[in-house]
């Protein structure tokens, strides 16, 4: 392996333009890495400075509560490689810094299928396994073959199989046993060369019901997902947000049945293990939070799950609001809400 070279580590860096909530907060140190050599050099420098490392993609799933006492390492390594084509399948290796949506669009142009339902999810390929991104009836785990990473502590390279990743709803080993230990460098995907589509998710099913009856293609699904997402979700570049702020709680079947008796409108989705996923947005809206604003932060007017920075720029105020929302849902429904994005920094 070649000797690590010097990288440009910036001190006391403002992070407002590196997170989609546009929250203010400063990193003690900050570096952008574009290749493996720079990554190794940055990790070596963090160790010599005695700083913990926080890998960063596009900042679309983080909340800055304040300043961050760490080296924030922005992963910008690029590259897509076809590893193998066999039968109906193709295996790809994609560098962690690739933009997720651009990659999905590229797969369709090549005739590689399976990711179209995940179009327009913000962020990088390297962050996608962290919470097993999911949307419109598909989760990332269905297409991940392996995840390549390095230990932050000693640079050691490690490859995790799909099973090793312990993927679950908005969860993985990277949020559990391996939390804060790795930087993901690349992800291997197995995609299909056959055009099969998944359109059972209610919003997609009704979209295609309204269309002429020709066979739906993966490109149609991609276009539909992009259109639906654009019509429903605020663009973070215009209205700073981090997508869904809370996970949909997964609760015991009997608890869900009792809730449904009291609240027949509550959307419930049965899980394979007998538990039931209940719609956090419905409960938050029922508690009257939709459209609420205070101190420059608030809840989106059309989407109760999306918290917005309306110019308050203060993550601590946003987290206070989130805590109040969670507490009112707990009081009304007896259900605990968990925040989806990762919180960093000390409250100011
Ligand atoms: C408008 C909007 C809509 C969204 N819709 C969805 C959706 O439909 N489904 C969904 O699942 N998510 C959704 N999200 C959340 C977000 O897009 C995903 O979680 C995405 O994968 C985050 O990517 P990122 O590069 O921005 O990660 P960041 O926000 O930069 O990082 C998120 C976490 O991953 C870690 N991380 C990032 N890169 C690496 C790496 N290379 N190695 C190790 N750790 C790393 C960070 O340390 C941090 O803990 C949405 C967000 C927004 C703003």
Would you kindly provide a written description of the structure presented here, covering whatever features stand out?
The protein has 348 residues and is of the alpha+beta class. The chain folds into three domains: 10-75, 2-Layer Sandwich (Uridine Diphospho-n-acetylenolpyruvylglucosamine Reductase, domain 2), CATH 3.30.43; 80-192, Uridine Diphospho-n-acetylenolpyruvylglucosamine Reductase, domain 3, CATH 3.30.465.10; 241-347, UDP-N-acetylenolpyruvoylglucosamine reductase, C-terminal domain (Uridine Diphospho-n-acetylenolpyruvylglucosamine Reductase, domain 1, Alpha-Beta Complex). It contains seven helices and 21 strands. The protein has helices at residues 36-49, 100-110, 202-209, 218-232, 253-262, 280-286, 315-333, and strands spanning 10-14, 26-33, 53-56, 62-64, 66-75, 80-86, 89-95, 134-135, 138-139, 144-151, 157-161, 182-192, 241-244, 250-251, 268-270, 276-278, 293-294, 297-299, 306-309, 342-344, 346-347. The strands form six sheets. Strands 1, 2, 3, 5 and 21 form a five-stranded mixed beta sheet that branches. The chain has a five-stranded antiparallel beta sheet with strand order 6-7-12-10-11, with no helix packed on it. α3 (202-209) crosses α4 (218-232). The mean pLDDT is 95. It binds flavin-adenine dinucleotide (FAD).
């Amino acid at each position: 392996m070649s000797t690590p070279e010097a990288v440009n580590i910036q001190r006391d860096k403002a992070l407002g333009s590196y997170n989609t909530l546009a929250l203010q907060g400063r990193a003690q140190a900050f570096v952008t890495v574009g290749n493996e050599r720079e990554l190794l050099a940055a990790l070596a420098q963090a160790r010599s400075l005695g700083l913990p490392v926080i890998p960063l993609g596009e900042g679309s799933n983080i909340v800055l509560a304040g300043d961050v006492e760490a080296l924030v390492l922005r992963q910008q390594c690029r590259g897509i490689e076809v590893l193998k084509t066999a039968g109906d399948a193709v295996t790809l290796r994609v560098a962690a810094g690739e933009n997720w949506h651009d990659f999905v669009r590229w797969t369709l142009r090549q005739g590689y299928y399976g990711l179209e339902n995940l179009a327009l999810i913000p962020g990088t390929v390297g962050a996608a396994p962290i919470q097993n991104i999911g949307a419109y009836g598909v989760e990332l785990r269905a297409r991940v073959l392996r995840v390549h990473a390095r230990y932050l502590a000693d640079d050691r390279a490690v490859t995790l199989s799909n099973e090793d990743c312990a993927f679950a709803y908005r969860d993985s080993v990277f949020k559990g046993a391996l939390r804060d230990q790795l930087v993901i460098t690349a992800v291997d995907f197995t995609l299909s060369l056959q055009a099969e589509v998944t359109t059972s998710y209610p919003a997609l099913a009704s979209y295609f019901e309204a269309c002429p009856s020709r066979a739906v293609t993966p490109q149609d699904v991609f276009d539909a997902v992009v259109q639906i997402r654009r019509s429903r979700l605020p663009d973070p570049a215009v209205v700073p947000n981090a997508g869904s702020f809370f996970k949909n709680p997964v609760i015991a079947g009997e608890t869900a049945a009792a809730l449904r008796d009291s609240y027949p409108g509550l959307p419930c989705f049965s899980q394979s293990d007998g538990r039931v996923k209940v719609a956090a947005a419905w409960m938050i809206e029922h508690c009257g939070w939709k459209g609420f604003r205070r101190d420059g932060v608030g809840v989106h007017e059309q989407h109760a799950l999306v918290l917005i920075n309306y110019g308050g720029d203060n993550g601590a105020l946003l987290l206070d609001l989130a805590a109040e929302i969670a507490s009112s849902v707990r009081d009304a429904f007896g259900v605990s809400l968990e925040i989806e994005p990762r919180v960093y920094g000390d409250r100011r």
